[in-house]
Structure formats: C-alpha cells, structure tokens
Design a protein that fits this description.
The complex is a heterodimer of chains A (about 280) and B (about 450). Helices cover about 75% and strands about 0% of the residues of chain A. Chain A is mainly α and about 280 residues long. Chain A has two domains: about 120 residues; about 140 residues. Chain B is an alpha+beta fold and about 450 residues long. The chains are: A mainly alpha (about 280), B alpha+beta (about 450).
C-alpha cells in the first residue's frame, strides 16, 4: 500500500465510521433531522476519499484493483456506497439505512486489511475481458444485495412497531421499503445471473471447464438460488414481509461467504495460484 | 393449434404434472438444491481437495467423515440422488415452460378505483394517445363506448415469452451440461519444444473419458514450436506457446496464451504448467547410445526442477538449478547446472553435476547434457456441447433481464365527458411493486396534462 493510498484509506474508514454513528444517533438518541443531513454529507466526503484511495491503488499497481481480499474489498465497498448515494437521488427516504450500509462497509474494509496483496502487475490468469465483465456484475450484484439486506432489516424494525412512535414517523412506510427492497433484489438477481454466466465462460477459457463445483462457484450458486427462491415465493406464491426479509439477510450472508470466505478455503481455483 | 391445446389440457390433468408445476414444489426443489449445495461446500469434496487434505479431514472429524463417506457426501455433486434432484428441477422447468405456452385467454382488468383522476380541457386524440403509448412499448387494446365515454386498455411486456425464454435457457444449460459431461474428455498432454502430440488415447499424459465419448479421437497433431515467458520484476506477466496444428494436409499456426486456448475441432488446449527439459544422452562403454531423450523436470521446490529415471538396476535423479540468484523467473537459463545422482538398490553410487554440452563417465555409462528446452503441460478439454451451454446462458440471461428489469405493466384510462371538459381516470397494476405503477402513471398524467390542457 502506498503512503497516499494508506492515508486516504484510513480517512475513508474514519469518515464512514463517523457517518454511520451520526446517522444512527440522528434518529435514535439525538433525534435531529439536521444530523441525518450531516451524516449524509460526511459519508459522501468519505466516499470521495475512498475513490482517491482506489485511484491511487490503480495508478501505483498499474491495474484496476481485482486481486486479493483487500483490493476486492476496496472496490466492493466503493460500489455499495456509490450505489447507495446514486439510489438516494431517486429515493431520498432510504438515507436512514446509511448507518447499516456504513457499518457493513467498515466491516468489509477492516477485515480486508489482513490480506493486502503486494503492489504488482496482473498475472496472466487476470488478463481476460471476461474478468472485467465478471467482476463488474459481481460488484453490482453484491452492492444491490447489500442494500436489499439493509432495507429488509429496516423493514423488520418497522414491522415490529415497538420503536418510539416519533422515530417510526421518520422511517419510510413499510410499503415503500418493501417496494425498494424488492427492486434491489431483482436487480441483484439479474446481475448475479450475468456474473455467474460470464464467470463460467471465463472459466472455460482459463481452466478448460465451465463449471467445476468449486466452493466459490457453489457459494455463488447458493446465493443466486436463495434469491431465486425469494422471487419465486414473492411472484408466484404471493409471499410478502418478514419471511422474505429473513431470506434476503440469509442471501447476503451466503454472498459474503462466497466473496470473503474464499481466503479461508484451502482448495479453490479462485485464488489463481496456478499459471 | 387444437391438438396442441388438447395435449396441454390433458397434460394438465395428470396429477404428477400438476404436482411438478406447482409453485410450492418448484420452490421446494430450489430450496433442496440450495441446501445440498451448501452441504457440498461445507463437507470437502474429493474432486476438489487433494487426497492429503481429505485424509487430514478424516482424522480431524472421524465420525463425520465416516458418515460422509458412506452416504456419498464427499462426492455429493455426482451422486445419483443429487443428479436425480437436478433431473426433477429440469422436469419442473420443462413442464412449467410447456404449460405456459398455453394461451392464457383475455386479460381482465379489474380496477375498483382509478389511482389518478385529472381534468382535461380538450378531448384527447385517440391516434396521438396511441402513438404516445406505443412509444412507451405498450400494446394497445382500445375500447370505445360512444362519444361521451371511452376506455383505453394497454399492456407492456405483459407476455409469458421472456419468462419462458428464461426457463428454456435454464433447461438448455442443464441438459447440455449433462450431455457434455457424458460425452466429453479431459486430459493433459506434455510437450517439449519441438515435440508433437497426436490426439489419440495413448499420447495423453492423463486422460478421463466420459462414458459416451467412445474413443472418438480425431488424430490431428499439435506441435509445440516455441514457448516464451515474460516477467515484470519477479511477476510472470505473459506466457505464450507457439503451436502448429497438423491435420492431414491442413496446417495452421496459433499463439496459445493463458486465457486464450487453442481451439480445434471442439478440443481446447490450455497452458497449465511449465518446466524445463534437459536432453539426456546416455551411452555405454562401447560408445553406443542407449538412451536419448528430453526428460521433463517438474518443479520440485522453489528454484529447482527434478525428476528421476529408471534404467535397469540403476535409477537416475536429475535436478536442475536454472538460476543462481534468488529469483522466481523461469527464463530459459543461459548457464544451467544439472545435478545428477546415480543410485543402485537405493544407495547413491555416484553424484556430480554437468554444465550444458558437458558429458561425464558414471557407473551407468557416459551421461551427456545435450540441450535444454521448455516443456509445457497442456490441459486438453473436449466439450462438444459447449456452444449449447453458452446459448442457454444467453437465452436465460436475456429472458431474465427483460422479464425482471423491463417491468410488465397493465394500464387503463377512462375518458368521460363532463360538460365541456373531460375527466380522465388512470389506473395501473403490476406484480412488481406500486412505485413502478406510480411513476408510470405520473408520466402519463404529465403527458395528458401538457397536451390537452
């Protein structure tokens, strides 16, 4: 990690951390709407720092960050926060899930510090157009599912109704949460499908096999099936609400195992150790 | 058409068919595949993990490993019952797709209350309205009821086509994958620069043929002409093999790289591993050469390549040190050193080293180190149904994208003359959330207000 990247990385972490705390405090302890606005601005400033860290990494290593846990976390977290701010332009009411988003991102970026790959050029397995298609859709899916899970937690909180009534007023209606959450699942499911299909084509060119039941592949299939189940239950069986919220949370856990658990799996092709 | 409808109707009457197409069963099957896939990653699989890992796992969890072994959970994805489960998923997909082809009849639009009511100063022009809605991808069904009241019904993407396309794509992927795994081939071919490999059973280094491959070898030749590597610092950034395909009178040259395999007649040749091959010549005391071959040395440990050779009572160990400095770079060394150990009955009877072009007298004969070249281990894969699998992916992804991202929507507009003005009621419905409807209705409202007020 270069010094400039390191400085901006830590500024990002601090920024997200503070933004998350202020966001949470704004509708729990202090209950001031102004604080929510402040948290949003602070989070955005941290996002700018995040992008600077990412660009620095790209310039110094000579390639877009796609190697190892740290680089993937750097891009993954940026895509989650980026999508969060993008969607806020159209659905401002989702700003209340900011604390959840910032804390998830903090966790992802913090744990990635245990696996920082050296700054070096890409090895031959990474030189494929399919890699870029695969990772682009992976990040889109990952960020959509993360936002969907954050919204499903908000849905569960809203549904319990045990919260202070003043606080409940500040939260978006259950119907609205359900609507946005569902759309994130749909977008995540489609991008996840493209991610799996493009990964399979890449695997054919790289390993000579389009599907190997590799643990990472299988975990991603599990996540896709879990969200497929979600859509089936909702669209064909008319399920709504709590149970689907839990399926979304479970789906996000499987996605995280697929992405980050890869470093713990002793035998997977996804570490690209071979030539 | 009548026959088709009769067939679908009679199919629909069968209990087994109704059972398999029910959403509950489809959801349960997805849940079961999810569950068993989960088990398959929690319990290490024999075909992924090396035997030493499986052995260690067995020692760490003796009862679990015994249970997993006896139930086939260590080879879960290839057990008969998992394949049976996948067949049920396929059958369910197939029947759902088939029954969706049945014409669903006229779509009714029951709307108890219109979500938006607005007043217009002028009577809307039907033709203009038609072209506006067509631009928004609606199929129109206009129902006129006199001068004072008329309805416009329209639906967008509300067709089972894309859902069928997705299910059809998934079916093609599943079916083609099973057929491909049953008729494909997986092997390895080891080639030293200048050597040729013939696509026949005994030229493979390792070979796994699927049950229906039936020795369908193509007998074309692949010759490795040259191999090159490129490093930036100590990081390998490029590895490329120049190969020549020879098939009867036909010849072609290709550059094979990682991610860019050689593809010929459905076979793919991928660079898997590389190493060094010294040319070893061994002659007896009369000067007659009885062994002359490139010996492919595998990477034994960091910075050394080794292999052994059995020659009657003797065994020979070769170890090559390509670089004298601390580097991971595998350029063909200019001044290589070949270490040799001659063993008899397990005991070392001679040891020494040779530089390129040197020869030495040993108990087994005169050993000469004649040349040094690269060897490349190519992974060879034959997937005859691969185009179908990719075609299935394409259909599935297209169907899914249109089905889920381009929202199907039904709308109804009611125009009623109220004196000189017109009152318009707009209603819409979709299974994909109220917000979609609200946004769409807002756009229609905006258009009508701007145009007729």
């Amino acid at each position: 990690m270069s010094q400039l990247e390191e400085a901006f990385f830590w500024l990002t972490l601090v920024g997200y951390g503070l933004a998350g705390i202020i966001n949470l405090a704004s509708f729990t302890v202090l209950k001031r709407k102004k604080l929510l606005y402040f948290s949003k601005q602070l989070g955005f400033l941290a996002f700018i720092f995040h992008l600077v860290a990412l660009i620095t990494r790209t310039v110094v290593s000579g390639h877009f960050p796609v190697k190892g846990g740290y680089e993937n976390a750097l891009v993954g977290a940026a895509s989650v926060v980026g999508l969060f701010y993008l969607v806020q332009r159209y659905f401002p009411s989702i700003e209340v899930v900011g604390s959840g988003i910032f804390f998830i991102v903090l966790l992802v970026m913090g744990t990635s510090l245990t696996n920082i790959p050296p700054l070096e050029p890409l090895t031959p397995p990474y030189k494929s157009i399919w890699l870029w298609i695969h990772v682009l859709f992976a990040w889109l899916a990952y960020s959509s599912y993360t936002l969907a899970a954050a919204l499903s937690v908000l849905y569960l909180i809203r549904q319990r109704g045990t919260l202070d009534s003043k606080l409940l007023v500040k939260l978006p209606s259950q119907e609205k949460i359900d609507d946005i959450w569902f759309r994130f699942v749909v977008f995540g499911f489609v991008t996840n499908a493209i991610m799996i299909a493009s990964g399979s084509i890449w695997a054919h060119y790289l390993w000579g096999s389009y599907w190997k039941w590799d643990p990472v592949e299988t975990w991603n299939l599990i996540s896709w099936l879990a969200f497929g189940l979600f859509l089936h239950l909702r669209l064909t069986m008319g399920w709504r609400g709590r149970k689907l919220a839990w399926i979304t949370i479970l789906g996000l856990i499987t996605i995280n195992i697929g992405f980050w658990g890869v470093q713990l799996i002793p035998s997977t092709y996804h570490l690209f150790r071979k030539l | 058409m009548v026959f088709w409808e009769k067939l679908l109707n009679s199919l629909n009457k069968l209990y087994l068919v109704r059972f398999l197409v029910s959403p509950r069963v489809a959801a349960s099957l997805i849940a079961l595949v999810t569950f068993f896939s989960f088990i398959g990653v929690v319990i290490p699989q024999k075909f992924i993990y090396p035997p030493e890992y499986m052995k260690r796992w067995g020692q760490d969890f003796p009862s679990l490993s015994r249970f997993a072994e006896s139930t086939g959970l260590t080879n879960l994805f290839y057990t008969w019952w998992f394949l049976f489960l996948l067949s049920l998923v396929f059958l369910s997909l197939f029947l759902c797709t088939l029954l969706r082809l049945k014409p669903s009849g006229k779509k009714s639009f029951k709307t108890s209350s219109f979500q938006k009511i607005l007043a217009l100063k002028r009577k809307p022009d039907i033709e203009e309205l038609k072209s506006f809605l067509s631009r928004r991808f609606y199929r129109l069904k206009i129902q006129n009821e006199g001068e004072k009241l008329f309805f416009v019904y329209a639906w967008r993407f509300d067709t089972p086509f894309f859902s069928i396309l997705f299910h059809l794509g998934m079916m093609i992927v599943l079916l083609a994958a099973v057929a491909d795994k049953s008729s494909g081939l997986n092997g390895t071919a080891l080639l030293t620069e200048g050597e040729a490999f013939t696509e026949k059973h005994f030229d493979y280094e390792t070979l796994v043929e699927a049950p229906f491959f039936s020795e369908n070898h193509q007998f074309f030749k692949v010759m490795l002409e040259r191999f090159d590597v490129h490093y930036e610092g100590d990081v390998l950034t490029d590895a490329q093999a120049r190969v020549r395909v020879i098939d009867g009178d036909f010849q072609k040259e290709e550059l094979v790289k990682v991610n860019y395999p050689l593809s010929y007649k459905g076979f793919s040749f991928l660079i898997d591993k590389i190493g060094f091959s010294p040319l070893i010549n061994i002659s007896n005391h009369k000067g007659e050469t009885f062994f002359s071959s490139y010996v492919s040395l595998g990477e034994e440990k960091k910075q050394s390549f080794a292999d052994f050779l059995n020659l009657g009572n003797y065994s020979l160990n070769f170890e090559l040190y390509p670089n004298t400095f601390n580097s991971r770079r595998l350029y063909l060394p200019e001044d290589p050193l070949l270490g040799i150990k001659v063993r008899k009955a397990g005991k070392v009877v001679w040891q020494g080293s040779l530089k390129l072009g040197e020869a030495v007298e040993t108990p087994v004969g005169t050993i000469a180190f004649g040349d040094l070249r690269y060897w490349v281990l190519f992974q060879v894969a034959y997937s005859p149904l691969l185009p179908w699998i990719f075609f299935g992916f394409f259909l599935a992804v297209t169907g899914l994208t249109v089905r889920l991202l381009f929202y199907p929507l039904n709308i109804c507009l009611k125009f009623e003359a109220k004196g000189r003005k017109w009152e318009v009621g707009i209603a819409g419905k979709t299974r994909l959330g109220k917000m979609v409807v609200e946004r769409e209705l807002k756009k229609i409202e905006g258009y009508l207000g701007k145009r007729y007020n």
